[in-house]
């Protein structure tokens, strides 16, 4: 079919042909901003770093803002998806691949070779890109920048600038506006500014982004982190308690009431970046059945890994002859196994029916975790767990999951796999929240009777790769553990078929054979049998 | 094993096949001359606009058919021999059936305009029409202007499509206001303004006289009936309605009128032959419905019902309350029950109309003037719950009840502004002034 499918692969037809002059100027301004950063990276000695840094970030902001205004404010309010599958950058064309390679390289350097970015080692001063950010870091917390500070600034800039773009794109949709405002706020405040200020207040506190919850925040229970909290008196203890509360109390309550969206698309930073800077790539997620199968295997494996890894970490530092904590290894491991058993038993008791075939997989997963923990308990020594050095497990997790999966693949591959591949295939937090969303939550996407025309807009724009249409065209509500409640499926549906809502648990999952609108006798016959 | 052959892989044929498979083990073959796999015709516009690729409009993955043992045959049925139960394909081969279902959908109307078969003139129904449009209107340099003839749902979609690529559009509408054979005037006029806001050159009360050819047999311009004005253009979209796609049956013994004539069991005049979807014509209209209903939902419902009959549970086609929906550029439209246009409404049908000051949202509620019974609602820019209106219609609620409980039916996304109070106030004020 001739629908320009190949055009995006052709360099001779760059997208720039179709954009207005204002948009070209905006792009140029943004590129100047990036160019200054590039110069800094190659150790250009700027006379006044602070000024040039301001200029550079200002140009990036300005470029995105100008571009978005010209793209959206010149048109009437409504869905703005024209040409997304024609544009090279958003349809896995040459530009998309180039961007993917660029981002991936950036992440690899960031995680594994920060010295290339100019990180000063052994007490040397920073140079290059990281040195370029020293003035800003000094201003905020009185210390020199690190690669994480640079990353944090760029991350925040991306969420704010592209968040603005998103706000204009969906200016007719209050739900989209509010949740985007929310992720922008949490990124700027909680992930970026508050930790800096906390450091100013008490520089022994470990870096703590309050909204980042275990197991997404996989280092919160590391020895250095817990010690850091415990050694800083009441604030530290309060923070550690807050960390525990957010996992065991706040998260379950909010997820019960609103679904996992309260976190994934209103609060979380990974989600925040995906929804703003990643918005142009949402259609790239695969909706195929096999992708769903891979997803379920991968994400639950990561979950098991993260639980076992965290328990092992804590377990290892509880093992010292005289530990600073009141727990002993035996008590700790029993507590963990007890908790897991209670959760498992409750699910089996209340939800056996709903789980169907998945119950078996759940049982296997549970058995694997318990078995691993017991093996660890009975074979572990002070410095070896699972016959490997205690720290190795944690490093492996940090490397493969924390860095490679969530950063390099999760974000670097935005233009190839879509904007939420980390959230979908890897995030252990998403797995826990999703598990609860599927079983104990009031949230669902309601399908509006028989109104669906199977057009596919909803599935196409679902960043989590959910085939929304498959449910909607059967008149069935969408209750899926992976749904992050971004609401875009509902926004783009041209027939008003989908509504995200919180309602009673009863009748939430409603498979139907015959849709509303047909003969009532037939509906009775088939739907109530 | 009984062999069910279904001609047409649209929503009606496919729904039928799926339901037969659920209820039985019969051999099923779906035939189509258009595409190998079922796709959603209603999404054609989004392909041209670049929202989706063709493959995204296919509601089922390609493995689905084999897994459910539904055979797909690509080919065009040229002739049906009902005596020997044989289908003859244009490609030369044949196929035997035990039961035959005709689900061949529609084709665009052409009213004998001079030049209607020139290159660059097309309807917008089949995938081939889309390919044609892509060929003649890939961008605004190749297609300097397009003219669309016929102000219905497909016409406005086609205008939106061309508009998305920056191609100037002239939109010829025979009526004096857009789609006002169906919409009450307040709504229709609001849509007129919305169309113009999108910089589409809307020409009301305007008919096509002829399409003018250039030296190579391509469209050069069109001429307007009323004024004789000549409008240069490279593409002409013919969207003046559709008609059943049944020419290949004219030689057969199957009774046809405008469509394939069927009774309430969707049976034709011949045993073991049925017709569903756009191409089926009821002997007598059901309620307020038209004898031929070229809408998605009707095709689907007929498929659901006929599957029962074919699987031995003979069942009449008894559609529930009417509903429908569409989208006019940025404005969504839904309807439940019956709201007739000023031209078509009966003397007992009264309307309450409310319009938001932003000129993109409005509702019209139809009720019986004497009994106050609620008859139906049209809503623009506000989503409503199908289930709630379906229930109210069944319960024969009166209009006061509906107006007072409108909030229950709201289906807009969370945090949207609500207009029920404003609507109710307008409603009560209006009653007082009468
Ligand atoms: C652009 C567009 C937008 C629309 N939007 C809406 C909407 O929003 N809401 C709504 O309710 N309806 C809408 N409709 C109408 C809706 O799509 C049709 O009512 C519906 O698709 C009809 O389905 P069907 O199964 O009866 O036939 P079709 O979908 O037309 O399928 C029939 C198939 O049979 C094939 N066929 C025909 N004759 C032969 C033959 N002799 N041999 C082999 N194959 C043959 C055809 O090629 C076709 O593939 C829209 C239609 C169009 C064109
Ligand atoms: S199903 Fe809808 S709300 Fe959920 S993630 Fe997909 S697009 Fe977002
Ligand atoms: S976008 Fe709406 S109409 Fe289209 S398939 Fe999804 S639910 Fe159905």
UniProtKB/TrEMBL annotation, chain A:
Spell out the protein name for this chain: Polyferredoxin
Which keywords label this protein? 4Fe-4S, Electron transport, Iron, Iron-sulfur, Membrane, Metal-binding, Transmembrane, Transmembrane helix, Transport
Instruction: Indicate the transmembrane segments per the record.
Output: 25-44, 50-73, 94-113, 148-168, 180-201, 235-256, 297-318, 330-350, 362-379, 399-417
Domain of life per record: Bacteria
SUPFAM superfamilies this protein is in? Answer: 4Fe-4S ferredoxins
Task: Tell me one GO molecular function of this protein.
Answer: metal ion binding
Specify the 4Fe-4S ferredoxin-type domain's residue ranges.
443-471, 474-503
In the UniProt record, which is one GO cellular component term?
plasma membrane
Which stretch is the leader sequence? none
Instruction: Show the Pfam families listed in the entry.
Output: Fer4_5, Fer4_9
UniProtKB/TrEMBL annotation, chain B:
One of the Pfam families matching this protein, by short name? Pyr_redox_2
Needs which cofactor? FAD
Look up keyword Flavoprotein and say if it applies: yes
A GO molecular function term, named singly, is: oxidoreductase activity
**FAD/NAD(P)-binding domain: residues covered:** 3-285
What family does the Swiss-Prot or TrEMBL record give for this protein? Belongs to the FAD-dependent oxidoreductase family.
Q: Which PANTHER family match?
A: NITRITE REDUCTASE [NAD(P)H], PYRIDINE NUCLEOTIDE-DISULFIDE OXIDOREDUCTASE DOMAIN-CONTAINING
The name this protein carries in UniProt is: NAD(P)H-nitrite reductase large subunit
Specify the species: Formosa algae
């Amino acid at each position: 079919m001739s629908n320009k499918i190949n055009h995006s692969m052709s360099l001779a037809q760059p997208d720039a042909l179709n954009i207005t002059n204002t948009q070209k100027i905006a792009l140029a301004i943004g590129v100047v901003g990036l160019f200054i950063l590039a110069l800094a990276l190659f150790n250009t000695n700027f006379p006044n770093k602070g000024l040039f840094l301001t200029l550079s970030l200002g140009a990036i902001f300005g470029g995105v803002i100008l571009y978005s205004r010209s793209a959206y404010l010149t048109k009437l309010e409504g869905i703005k998806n024209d040409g997304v599958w024609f544009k090279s950058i958003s349809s896995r064309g040459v530009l998309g691949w180039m961007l993917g390679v660029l981002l991936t390289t950036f992440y690899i350097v960031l995680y594994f070779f920060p010295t290339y970015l100019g990180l000063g080692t052994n007490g040397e001063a920073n140079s290059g890109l990281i040195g370029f950010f020293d003035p800003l870091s000094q201003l905020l917390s009185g210390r020199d920048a690190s690669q994480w500070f640079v990353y944090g600034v760029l991350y925040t800039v991306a969420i704010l600038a592209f968040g603005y773009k998103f706000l204009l794109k969906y200016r007719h949709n209050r739900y989209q506006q509010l949740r985007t405002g929310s992720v922008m706020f949490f990124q700027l405040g909680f992930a970026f500014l508050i930790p800096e200020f906390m450091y100013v207040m008490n520089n022994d506190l470990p870096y703590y982004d309050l909204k980042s919850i275990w197991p997404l925040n996989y280092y919160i229970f590391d020895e250095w982190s817990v010690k850091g909290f415990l050694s800083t008196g009441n604030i530290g203890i309060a923070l550690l308690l807050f960390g525990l509360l957010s996992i065991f109390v706040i998260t379950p309550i909010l997820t019960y009431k609103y679904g996992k969206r309260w976190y994934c698309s209103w609060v979380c930073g990974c989600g925040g970046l995906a929804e703003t800077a990643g918005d142009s790539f949402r259609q790239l997620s695969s909706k195929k059945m096999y992708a769903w199968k891979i997803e379920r295997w991968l994400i639950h494996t990561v979950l098991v890994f993260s639980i076992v890894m965290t328990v092992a970490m804590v377990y290892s530092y509880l093992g010292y002859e005289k530990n600073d904590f009141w727990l002993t290894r035996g008590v700790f491991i029993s507590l963990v196994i007890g908790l897991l058993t209670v959760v498992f038993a409750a699910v089996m008791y209340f939800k056996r029916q709903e789980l169907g075939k998945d119950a078996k997989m759940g049982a296997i997963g549970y058995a694997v975790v318990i078995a691993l923990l017991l093996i660890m308990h009975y074979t572990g020594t002070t410095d070896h767990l699972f016959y490997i050095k205690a720290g190795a497990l944690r490093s492996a997790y940090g490397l493969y999951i924390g860095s490679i999966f969530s950063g390099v693949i999760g974000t670097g591959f935005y233009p190839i796999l879509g904007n939420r591949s980390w959230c979908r295939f890897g995030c252990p937090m998403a797995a826990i929240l999703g598990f609860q969303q599927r079983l104990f939550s009031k949230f669902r996407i309601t399908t509006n009777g028989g109104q669906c025309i199977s057009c596919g807009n909803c599935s196409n724009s679902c960043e989590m790769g959910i085939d929304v249409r498959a449910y909607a065209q059967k008149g069935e509500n969408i209750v899926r553990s992976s749904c992050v409640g971004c609401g875009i499926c509902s926004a783009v549906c041209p027939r008003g078929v989908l509504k995200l809502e919180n309602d009673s648990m009863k009748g939430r999952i409603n498979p139907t054979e015959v849709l509303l609108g047909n003969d009532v006798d037939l509906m009775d016959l088939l739907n109530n049998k | 094993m009984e062999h069910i052959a279904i001609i047409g892989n649209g929503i009606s044929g496919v729904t039928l096949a799926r339901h037969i498979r659920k209820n039985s083990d019969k051999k099923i073959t779906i035939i189509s001359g258009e595409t190998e796999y079922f796709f959603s015709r209603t999404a054609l516009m989004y392909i041209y606009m670049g929202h989706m690729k063709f493959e995204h409009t296919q509601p089922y993955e390609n493995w689905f058919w084999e897994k459910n043992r539904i055979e797909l045959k690509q080919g065009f049925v040229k002739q049906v021999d009902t005596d020997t139960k044989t289908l003859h394909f244009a490609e030369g081969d044949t196929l035997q059936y035990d039961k035959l279902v005709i689900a061949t959908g529609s084709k665009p109307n052409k009213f004998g305009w001079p030049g209607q078969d020139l290159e660059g003139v097309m309807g917008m129904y089949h995938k081939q029409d889309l390919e044609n449009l892509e060929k003649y209107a890939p961008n605004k340099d190749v297609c300097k202007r397009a003219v669309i003839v016929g102000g219905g749902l497909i016409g406005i979609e086609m205008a939106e499509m061309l508009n998305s690529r920056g191609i100037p559009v002239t939109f010829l509408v025979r009526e004096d206001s857009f789609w006002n054979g169906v919409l009450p005037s307040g709504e229709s006029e609001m849509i007129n303004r919305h169309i113009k806001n999108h910089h589409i050159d809307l020409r009301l009360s305007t008919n096509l006289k002829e399409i003018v050819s250039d030296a190579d047999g391509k469209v050069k311009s069109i001429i307007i009936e009323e004024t004789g004005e000549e409008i240069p253009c490279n593409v002409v979209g013919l969207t003046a309605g559709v008609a059943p796609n049944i020419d290949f049956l004219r030689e057969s013994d199957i009774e046809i009128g405008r469509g394939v004539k069927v009774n309430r069991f969707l049976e034709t005049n011949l045993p073991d032959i049925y017709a569903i979807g756009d191409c089926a014509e009821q002997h007598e209209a059901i309620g307020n419905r038209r004898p031929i209903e070229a809408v998605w939902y009707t095709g689907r419902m007929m498929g659901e019902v006929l599957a029962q009959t074919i699987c031995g549970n003979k069942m009449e086609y008894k559609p529930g309350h009417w509903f429908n929906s569409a989208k006019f550029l940025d404005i969504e439209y839904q309807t439940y029950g019956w709201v007739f246009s000023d031209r078509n409404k009966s003397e007992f049908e009264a309307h309450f109309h409310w319009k938001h000051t932003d000129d993109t949202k409005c509702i019209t509620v139809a009720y019986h003037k004497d009994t106050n019974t609620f008859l139906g609602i049209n809503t623009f820019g506000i989503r409503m719950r199908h289930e709630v209106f379906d229930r109210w219609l069944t319960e024969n609620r009166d209009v006061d009840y509906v107006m007072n409980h409108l909030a229950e039916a709201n289906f807009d996304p969370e945090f949207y502004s609500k207009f029920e109070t404003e609507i109710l106030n307008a409603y009560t004020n209006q009653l007082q002034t009468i």
